[in-house]
Design a protein that fits this description.
globular, nine-stranded mixed beta sheet, 9 strands, 4 helices
Length: 154
């Protein structure tokens, strides 16, 4: 395992994995903590990369526990796994998109099945500012291909 973290910047490979996760049958799982301190897990089919340091997703049902939890504690974590990627964890701070352009951009980036599930756009756009990405990108001939990135790395 590497001794240090590199500067957090999602690679083209990570963008592809995240942006195609739903279509390939392995959406990311979001972890939040509700106001009572209980963990809440949910699959996020609309999750997409928003930038090289941010993720975004469309929350179709804003009355649920996810939004309440984010308002109470914006710290979130996500996990990704596929047949070729053993494990990637993403940590960050979630926020409700603050303007119409952000909201529209998050909605437009969501996969078509997710957009069709909320044609009136009654949901909420969430943007996650990533602070840490770590895990195993693949198994190479010499063992695990590690990923360790942090927003505050030199």
């Amino acid at each position: 395992m590497p001794d240090s973290y590199t500067k957090l910047r999602l690679t083209a490979e990570m963008h592809s994995k995240i942006n195609n996760a739903l279509g390939e049958g392995h959406p990311l799982v979001l972890a939040v903590v509700d106001p009572e301190g209980q963990p809440v897990l949910s699959f996020r089919g609309s999750l997409q990369t928003y930038s090289d340091t941010q993720l975004g997703f469309w929350l179709r049902i804003p009355q649920g526990r996810t939004l309440t939890s984010i308002r109470h504690n914006p710290k979130v974590a996500l996990i990704y796994r596929s047949p070729t990627t053993p494990l990637l964890q993403f940590h960050g701070r979630a926020r409700i998109a603050s303007d119409d352009a952000e909201r529209e951009r998050v909605f437009a980036a969501a996969p078509e099945p997710e957009r069709k599930a909320d044609p009136e756009k009654k949901g909420v756009a969430i943007v996650i500012d990533l602070t840490l990405v770590e895990g195993v990108l693949a198994m190479g001939p010499d063992g695990p291909v590690w990923c360790r990135m942090a927003a505050d790395a030199a």
